[in-house]
Design a protein that fits this description.
By secondary structure, this protein is mainly beta. It is globular and about 55 Å long. Helix 1 packs antiparallel against helix 2 and helix 2 packs across helix 3.
């Protein structure tokens, strides 16, 4: 029997909150909900939905929510793990559906040392909805990205690992209403490695995946795949740069009939160059390919891409600085903008999002003398100038590693950052940070873990009409690292 751990110590928690015996019984029932493992060939899919969970969390939430919450107050928090103890579980990406329900994709451990791609969803009220985990027995799987269609169905991507075929790309489709999971795998060359890094989904469920695929000669190519709304493979396009080495897609977005893939291409003597490819979203025909390399031939990296009707923006790092490059839809490079910290240390963007009015908002990290690595957040105009006048930095006290990992912008133009802040007492805390549309910092808060004084970090952030959600990982004494979920007052 596989168990879902929702609370580290339900009896202690119920007692401290004075919930009584009924809540304790409900929480114990929740902890022993069995998964329904379904063997499908050499694959294992775990599907879970729960009604007992709804009762348990409702009782908990009623007692734990502040009576008069203010912006940034923590309304709910928990760590989840599935199966193995003393192992690693984490949420990598969070999306919020049209009903305000958070959906998370990441990694979980089915048995000790074996990972699985995990997708789970709570209701906006924190009531349990469903969970789907996918892996290959004795080997496993990893989750890297997530997107939702217009109905809230989840498309989680990553890769599986098998002895016979190496790494294969996997797209795990989970139906929003039932939690029913359907995996789609793609194996390129026989016995070669293929890995998905990013996914974009249209409202009708058309799915686009990018990553890397090993060629016959062992080199890696950019791979881009399209699935139809019914899950049918429509095309797969491989791109090998002129240097015939390492090429990979790391980010993808669609604007109209244009599909943009951003990644890295290893250029001998230049390190990794930024590469941007435009495809026809319908046919997969490649329209153009562009490379960016700084004048000193240093490496670039890519963390995201977004597009408007007049521009394509690629974020990452170049020559050790936070880098943003703009191209026109026809492939002309308009400008590149960099932000550098102190002493030539590494600075870079980790996430990018479009803001109302056509602005481009980003978060990441910048090194400052005296404070170490700081959370970096900025907003650019379409002409390449900083909208807030300066980029915003945020740090803990002392010379520590603080990092913005995820970013989202709401309909009012407010920017929310999820990341990690090194606490004064030591260890890492999950960070939530909010900026107004004009760049003024409105609030921030940290969460130090399921166990007070422990470690936690936010790897992504999502926002609904009334709440801010974090996902990531939190350390526990009994279960290793658990997948983290935190809800805060918006």
């Amino acid at each position: 029997m596989r168990k879902l751990r929702l609370l580290a110590d339900s009896h202690r928690l119920c007692s401290s909150l004075n919930l009584g015996l009924s809540a304790f019984v409900a929480l114990q029932s929740l902890k022993t909900l069995s998964a329904n493992p379904q063997s499908e060939g050499d694959e294992l899919i775990i599907r879970r939905t729960g009604t007992v969970a709804a009762l348990a969390v409702a009782l908990l939430l009623t007692a734990a929510t502040p009576a008069f919450a203010v912006q940034g107050d923590i309304l709910y928090h928990d760590g989840f793990h599935q199966g193995a103890v003393s192992d690693s579980d984490q949420g990598n990406v969070i999306k919020i559906d049209s009903g305000g329900n958070p959906v998370v994709a990441g990694d979980t451990s089915l048995i000790a040392g074996q990972s699985a791609l995990d997708t789970l969803s709570l209701g906006g009220d924190t009531l349990w909805r469903w969970e789907s985990a996918y892996g290959v027995p004795s080997y496993g799987a990893r989750g890297t990205d997530l997107a939702l269609d217009g109905w809230g169905n989840a498309f989680a991507v990553g890769w599986t690992d098998t002895a016979a075929k190496g790494h294969d790309i996997v797209v795990l489709f989970t139906a929003a209403l039932t939690g029913t999971a359907t995996p789609h795998t793609w194996n390129g060359r026989p016995n070669k490695d293929d890995e998905a890094r990013a996914v974009a989904v249209a409202s009708d469920g058309t799915c686009y995946v990018t990553g890397m695929s090993q060629a016959r000669d062992g080199d890696m190519d950019v791979i881009t795949i399209k699935y139809g709304p019914a899950g049918d493979l429509q095309w797969a396009k491989r791109y090998n740069s002129p240097w015939d080495g390492f090429d990979s897609g790391f980010a993808i977005c669609r604007k109209g009939t244009a599909l943009y893939v951003a990644g890295a291409s290893r250029h001998p003597g230049h390190g990794d160059d930024l590469v941007l490819i435009r495809y026809d979203a319908m046919t997969g025909a490649r329209k153009w390919t562009r490379f960016y390399d700084d004048d000193l031939r240093r490496s670039e990296s890519v963390s995201g891409v977004v597009a408007t009707s007049s521009g394509v923006y690629v974020a990452g790092s170049g020559k050790g600085d936070a880098l943003l490059v703009k191209y026109t839809p026809s492939g002309t490079r308009r400008w590149n903008a960099s932000i550098a910290g102190s002493r030539g240390m590494f600075d870079g963007w980790t996430d990018i999002a479009l803001a109302p009015g056509g602005y481009i908002n980003l978060t990441g990290v910048i090194y400052k003398t005296g404070t170490g690595d700081n959370v970096l957040t900025a907003s650019y105009r379409a002409n390449g100038t900083l909208r807030w006048g300066v980029a915003k930095t945020f740090s803990s006290d002392g010379n520590h590693l603080d990092l913005g990992n995820g970013l989202v912008v709401d309909a009012d133009g407010k920017t929310y950052v999820g990341g990690v802040l090194h606490s004064i007492a030591g260890g890492d805390d999950a960070l939530a940070l909010c900026y107004a549309a004009n760049g003024a910092r409105e609030w921030w808060n940290t969460y130090d873990g399921v166990v007070a004084g422990g470690d936690a970090m936010a790897l992504d952030v999502g926002v609904s009409a009334d709440a801010v959600w974090l996902t990531g990982t939190t350390a526990t004494p009994a279960n290793g690292d658990d997948l983290l979920m935190v809800k805060l007052e918006k």
